[in-house]
Amino acid sequence: MRGTDASILALSGGVGGAKLCLGLADVLPPAALHIASNTADDFEHLGLTICPDIDTVLYTLAGVSNQRQGWGLEGESWQVLAALESLSADTWFRLGDRDLATHLWRTGQLAAGCSLSTLTAELARRLGVTARLYPMSDDRVSTVVHSDEGDLPFQHYFVRRQCQPRVGGFSFAGLAEARLQADIVALCRQQAVSGVIICPSNPFVSVAPILQLDGCWQLLRELRGPVLAVCPIVGGRAIKGPAAKMMAELALPVTALGVAEYYARHYPGLVDIFVIDHSDATLAADIQMLGMEVRVTATVMQTRADKQALAQDCLQQVLG
Amino acid sequence: MRGTDASILALSGGVGGAKLCLGLADVLPPAALHIASNTADDFEHLGLTICPDIDTVLYTLAGVSNQRQGWGLEGESWQVLAALESLSADTWFRLGDRDLATHLWRTGQLAAGCSLSTLTAELARRLGVTARLYPMSDDRVSTVVHSDEGDLPFQHYFVRRQCQPRVGGFSFAGLAEARLQADIVALCRQQAVSGVIICPSNPFVSVAPILQLDGCWQLLRELRGPVLAVCPIVGGRAIKGPAAKMMAELALPVTALGVAEYYARHYPGLVDIFVIDHSDATLAADIQMLGMEVRVTATVMQTRADKQALAQDCLQQVLG
């Protein structure tokens, strides 16, 4: 691995991405890890601005996330939710008490005119997170899920309807007008990152909004360092979330090859290295035909050691 | 007392007003009590719209208020506040978990386009409150306290600075453009109320915004039924809150007579009956000189029976 001045930009959605970010944070020196977080599934609920992916990454890196549940905080209490239920209020989005404090603080600060970037950095500081976490944009981008139940805001599809509707595609409202977060732009323009790691997040609703934003993927492709993507599909299944179900509904092959083909078609020349699990080793040759190097390794992250090992492996590929 | 079709409009601020409203609700038939609540101390905090006076009246009538504390809910928990503190967030306004649920629900519904009137009625229904409670307006009015520390938003003066600054006066931002709540206007125009009771609330910051709003006091003066005011100053002191301190700083006599003079000067001909405590009986003659009938009774409400007795007494005066 190159010297300790190596700096990595990771692109992350929620749970799966956060796991690899934690591994990267463990093995990289402080301040060497920059994370661009998807914000297209942010939404307004009960007057609050909620940023699920930012919070999942923050809580995971701070060591306070509820790992069994996959969202929210460990040891959470539910006093407010119980009171909302007794008021017959909307409670399909489960807001824990400590989690609510994050949303309240952020919403109040946004109302006072602070940018999401500033607030994300400040929240990281208050939670003791040393990695640099950025929202992909300070402008609002909102995923719309085109489904057999009509167009649904992302959280309505994902949480309220538990991914049950069949999807036909996605669009990102506000994307055309949104600007890529300024620090991410500066890191890229100044060639200040040694490489990019696309975390094993959902390609369609977590990674796509970041890549499609404001020329982001073209900017990443122009970097001197390589772009590595970790495949979120292992053995034809998603480790977590609806990626596999979405691929089937979009008539894509539900395999690591299907994911690689998706990246190659939509972002040609972007991904230099594609990381797949041992169980998908037989797909390596076909993926190489797409012009990507393939790294076969253990990509399922259950333990902290798994996360660190995958992070080390990715860094080895990226930094050489 | 007149027949059971008698209908009363009460004007109320927070704690003191809510006590008399509870007494009135106990002794009047359901649906005979209409309450216009001050909203000029409503404010935005952590992105939430908070309506302290509406909530104090609602919680009091629903029997869930914290009477010892004077605000908030009985048996409240503080999980969110503790988490906000650990985030070093603003916690000068003490938000309990169950109370927060009210603010969240309301803020979400306001964002969805519901009026504060509709939400207040719905919240009353969900809490089992049968009295009709109206915000004084669906438009935003905000008390500004002119003080020796400059102009302060009301809750900053009241809660954050604990009424310590010396006041020089008050203004009500938005008052000139705000409309009196439509049901209150209709009740008055249709002479559908048998009388008005101005609760023993702060004359300057709780009652004044209601009376000064959109010709309200002139509308009340034109009613066929009488207007009765219960004096919030007893024996030269306020039962609760900064009314006495404010009077001293405004160079008004800190007495029941001072309050009566204030009403007579600013709302001439409005108050027909002025209710004072036994301890202020010697002031009755001077108050009568202002053109008001004076009723001397026990106005300090400690027990539920105290509240009911004062309510009965007021109704007797108003309904004859």
From TrEMBL, chains A, B:
Organism lineage string: Bacteria, Pseudomonadati, Pseudomonadota, Gammaproteobacteria, Cellvibrionales
Enzyme class, spelled out: transferase
Highest taxon above the source species: Bacteria
InterPro entries according to UniProt: CofD, CofD-like_dom_sf, FbiA/CofD
Keywords: Magnesium, Transferase
Protein name, UniProt field: 2-phospho-L-lactate transferase
Pfam families linked to this entry: CofD
Alphabetical list of PANTHER family matching this protein: 2-PHOSPHO-L-LACTATE TRANSFERASE (PTHR43007)
Enzyme Commission numbers on file: 2.7.8.28
Stored CDD domains: CofD_like (cd07186)
Cross-referenced SUPFAM superfamilies: CofD-like
Native species: Kineobactrum salinum
GO MF term list: LPPG:FO 2-phospho-L-lactate transferase activity; magnesium ion binding
